[in-house]
Specification:
It is a single chain. This protein is an alpha+beta fold. The protein has helices at residues 17-29, 31-37, 78-90, 140-156, 193-202, 213-220, 231-235, 276-316, 320-344, and strands at residues 40-46, 52-58, 94-95, 100-101, 106-116, 119-129, 179-182, 188-191, 242-247, 250-261, 264-274. Helix 2 packs antiparallel against helix 4 (140-156). The radius of gyration is 29 Å and the shape is elongated. The model is unreliable at 133-139 (pLDDT under 50).
């Protein structure tokens, strides 16, 4: 796990293994925050000299980036360190009063202490370009509020969520695929247009906002249809996990990120993606694979049958020369079967 720290700065930063593991979990899951807020995230660790050095950097996948160059390994500018130290020592989120001018754009800076078990282990800066049109996204303010909630959880030591499912097979949902904001009762407060499209393809008609999502999805699933046992808690936003829903040949991949504030439930972020085409392609590949395995099995059986017939003929033969010829033919067929078995695997 030490690959989080570049070789050039491993000697400058001395982190406890448990703290380093916590930072690894954060880096594994912070793409959600950067995509929600269309911001660059930079993780800064404290050196023995008290300075901060960048050990990780994340850019938004669907928007403008603040840092075109690689910042990992750079020390934090002296002018910014005072606020970073204040946020680190006070374990509270601080926002710079004035945007920083980089020469091309103004950047809003936010300092988020990364807290684990009641103490800060690093600083995460969220750097957002001010005054830019962010890809024309609808609900930008709502998505930014969700990013703010996740940053608050980082400062409270409740994000990343322990044991959360962050990876699954091909088709894991991302922010760009669709976002749903659930309240603490599992009702939809907000949904992006892509999320609306996903649930409409699944068979849910009408408005999503205000509806109990778990009930709406359950009502369209035919009786006696096998479902993932975690589906209900994911759709209610009660567990940080991944699930998949299939109705009438349409497949949705869902990921839930519960939100907490001051130790109390505050709803959830639900990421959703239509993976119907992906699952259809996987099924085609599985069918082809099964066909190929069946062909190999039949060829193997046929070779064994030929070998058995040669063996029977050899036993009935009265001429030594004939028996030797049949035995040689049997050995050749057995060799072919062995080669075929190796190639089929």
């Amino acid at each position: 796990m030490s690959n989080l720290l570049p070789t050039a700065i491993r000697g400058l930063v001395d982190l406890d293994p448990a703290d380093l593991d916590w930072l690894h979990q954060l880096v594994a899951d912070w793409q959600v925050i950067t995509d929600l807020s269309v911001s660059d995230l930079v993780l800064w660790a404290k050196t023995d000299s008290g300075r901060f050095v960048a050990i990780a950097h994340c850019r938004p996948s669907g928007g403008n980036t603040v840092h075109l160059e690689d910042v990992i390994g750079r020390r934090m500018p002296t002018a910014r360190e005072a606020m970073a130290v204040e946020a680190y020592d006070g374990e509270q989120i601080l926002v710079a009063s004035d945007p920083e001018w980089t020469g091309t754009t103004a950047v809003r800076e936010e300092y988020v202490p990364v807290v684990r078990e009641g103490h800060a282990v690093a600083i995460m800066t969220r750097e957002t370009s001010v005054g830019l049109i962010r890809g024309g996204r609808l609900g930008d303010k709502h998505l930014e509020d969700l990013a703010d909630s996740l940053c608050t959880m980082i400062a409270e030591g409740t994000f990343p969520i322990r044991g959360a499912g962050t990876t699954m097979r091909h088709g894991t949902p991302r922010v760009a695929d669709g976002v749903v904001h659930l309240d603490d009762e599992g009702r939809v407060r907000f949904a992006t247009p892509n999320a609306y499209s996903c649930f409409h393809r699944l068979g849910i008609d009408g408005e999503l906002e205000g509806c109990q999502l778990a009930e709406a999805v359950t009502s369209i699933i035919p009786e006696r249809t096998p479902v993932d046992e975690t589906m209900a808690v994911v759709l209610m936003g009660r567990q940080a996990w991944l699930t998949e829903v299939e109705v009438g040949g349409a497949f949705l991949s869902l990921r839930s990120i519960p939100l907490t504030l001051g130790g109390h439930r505050a709803g959830a972020v639900l990421l959703v993606r239509d993976v119907t085409e992906i699952r259809r392609r996987e099924q085609v590949l599985l069918n082809k694979d099964a066909t190929i395995r069946e062909v190999h099995h039949r060829v193997k059986n046929n070779l064994q049958t030929v070998s058995a017939l040669l063996r029977m003929q050899g036993r009935r033969a009265t001429n030594d020369e004939t028996r030797e010829a049949l035995a040689e033919a049997e050995r050749r067929v057995a060799t072919i079967a062995t080669v075929h078995e190796a190639l089929s695997h």
